[in-house]
Design brief:
Strand order of the largest sheet: 2-1-3-4-5
Distance between the termini: 8 Å
Radius of gyration: 18 Å
Bound molecules: zinc ion
Order of helices and strands: HHEHEHEHHHHEE
Largest sheet: 5 strands, mixed
Strand content: 5-15%
Number of helices: 8
Helix content: 40-55%
Structural class: alpha/beta
Length: 225
């Protein structure tokens, strides 16, 4: 299995704990700026991000900032709607296999425009005019179309619908990553990597994790490539 295995890599639980603590510091605005200072060392040392995050491109969801992390800490893929397109899977496979990162987080956020656009497309039957934008909404559609029913499209229920759809899209994307990539599936089955879903709440700055980690995660025993 092509996986750089380093016994000193953070376990999925340790990585998740670090993310939770970083998000708490961010919410309390007590983050230290030390991790955000450029250093020549960054160019000479191999990168060892402790987690891989798939997030949305939304300008209000800057991943490193909301986890209070700096250079080299997180391997981040951002794309509208945090969709799992082939090049996204490839980026995550690359990081999971090369850098020893053992936690993958798929993170959506409240008020996501890509999700709202997909709801609109399902509701009206008219997708976005651009086929490139449609390639995004088309990936989200199967994850949420079961939620879009006439009674929840009323204005007073629309916000709740979007929130539910954001979570459904995150959970389906995380599942897709676990099973749609042979490499990641093998790493998950071997207990080397865990994939979890999360939701960033624009209204509070809090990240809510939607999955709990499996209780049995193998301990690193040896280094192999
Ligand atoms: Zn978004």
């Amino acid at each position: 299995m092509p996986h750089t295995w380093d016994p000193s890599s953070a376990t999925p639980e340790q990585a998740l704990q670090r993310l939770v603590e970083g998000n708490r510091r961010f919410q309390k605005a007590t983050g230290t700026p030390s991790g955000r200072t450029w250093s020549r060392q960054l160019a000479t040392e191999a990168q060892r991000p402790f987690a891989i995050i798939l997030g949305c491109s939304d300008s209000r969801t800057p991943v490193e900032i909301l986890f209070d992390e700096g250079f080299g800490d997180l391997f981040v893929v951002r794309i509208a709607g945090n969709i799992v397109a082939p090049s996204v899977v490839g980026s995550i496979e690359f990081a999971a296999s090369q850098f020893g990162s053992r936690l993958v987080v798929v993170m959506g956020h409240t008020g996501c425009g890509a999700i709202a656009a997909t709801v609109m497309a399902i509701e009206t039957g008219l997708g976005p005019e651009s086929k490139n934008i449609r390639s995004i909404t088309d990936r989200i559609t199967p994850h949420i179309e079961g939620l879009v029913r006439p009674e929840v499209l009323r204005p007073e229920r629309r916000e709740g619908l979007i929130r539910e759809a954001v979570r459904a899209n995150v959970l389906a994307s995380a599942d897709h990553l676990r099973h749609g990539s042979r490499l990641i599936e093998e790493l998950v089955l071997a207990g080397r990597v865990a994939v979890v879903g999360a939701e960033y709440e624009l209204e509070t700055g809090a990240v809510h994790f939607l999955d709990s980690l499996p209780l049995t995660v193998a301990s690193p025993q040896s280094r192999e490539t």
